[in-house]
Amino acid sequence: MMACSRTCSRILGLSLGTTALFAAGANMVLLFPNWDVTYLLRGLIGRHAMLGSGLWGGGLMVFTAATLISLMGWRYGCFTLKDGPFCMFDVSSFNQTQAWKYGYPFKDLHTRNYLYDRSLWNSVCLEPSKAVDWHVSFFSSLLCISLLQILLVVIHFINSFLGLFCSLCEK
């Protein structure tokens, strides 16, 4: 029974390490919208991507399961999709000249949720192109990876408990 517990721990450790690499990779991709480095160089990347929760959170999660939820932003709200992507959008009113700025155009939408209104996706964010698609895709990937990591940590906890309990019974 102990050999089985060790084997399971090895598999779970490898799985957690692999998911940490995927989380770090997804966070890195968020820094380069449309595979273009100029947005990063010009400082036009949203704060959620710049926080790098997929880099430090995903890696730290593997080593410290106890702080998993708080490090991934559930406690501090670092992983909420409600603000939307950081992009250039039109801020001019009807009677003024056209004016664009970088920011979070979906942050103060009270009447509708941009996640459910796909007509807003390409009409609000002017640059980078398809910013909402990029944002939703990779933050959803980070969320799924985090959920998988939580599941793997729970399995490891159960496996360790059973390994300890069964080894006590054998003696």
UniProtKB/TrEMBL annotation:
InterPro entries assigned: L6_membrane
Transmembrane feature ranges = 55-74, 136-158
Lipid metabolism is among the record's keywords:
no
- Tell me the domain of life: Eukaryota
Task: Give compartment(s).
Answer: Membrane
| Keywords from the UniProt entry | Membrane, Transmembrane, Transmembrane helix
Q: Name one GO cellular component term.
A: membrane
Topological type in the membrane: Multi-pass membrane protein
Query: Can you tell me which family this protein belongs to?
Result: Belongs to the L6 tetraspanin family.
The protein depicted here goes by the name: Transmembrane 4 L6 family member 19
What is the organism field in this record?
Answer: Diceros bicornis minor
